[in-house]
Amino acid sequence: MSVARDAVGDELVYEVESGVARLTLNRPAQRNAMTWEMVEAMRECLVEARADPGVGAVVLQGAGERAFCSGADLGGMAGGDPDALHAARGQLAALFEDLWALGKPTIAAVHGYALAGGMGLALSCDVVIAADNAVFGTPEIDVGLWPFMITVPLIRSMPPKRALELMMTGRRVNAAEAFSLGFVTEVVPAADLEASVARWATALASKPPEAMRIGRTSFYETLDLAAGDALARLHGLLGVVADGEEAAEGIAAFSEKRPPRWRRTTEG
Known catalytic residue: 140? Predict the structure, then answer.
């Protein structure tokens, strides 16, 4: 089944095909810089993907050849009522939280520039596949700003002091260094990016959905907990998953030497 629609005019495209939802930032002339409307639309698309039992994984990508996302559209996000502007800025943080709470694997397909909020968007995904021409950076300091809203995705994706160094210097990082810092999962030739992302998405979408939802959610929920609190929470969830239908099916399939048959239902 394939579903495609424009979420904000034609600036954000949402497609579902073969169990994978794709959100495409479609402003190539602006290096896919995000407007407030695009951020809000991405949040709405994630709600739809979360509720759709036919979606097993979500891919975020940028249109064109120059960028995944160059960050916020500074021209379109400036001015206006200060209170409204402050509230709108919080939408980006809410988008990150939506990604972490999605219950389904997320993949960032990064080519070209992933800067500022665009870097934060990529690092809010579970898996980051980067083309060898990808460039990451937090240049806010050089225009008198600080990357406040993307601090959490950054320090969850690499050693905190390395994230701080990037934020303080504003320097740009190529795909090879990004991989060495640990915030990129795989680096591939630019020509192979689409195929690599498709392999990852297909593989992740094929996993047992309930175990994936509970396990992935537990990862983000316990990431910032003290060790004892995290272990107590995880111990309880282990019992839930071990006693569930998917574990029974997985063990039966292993014993019978056949592929498991996972049942996909709408989230309760």
Answer: yes
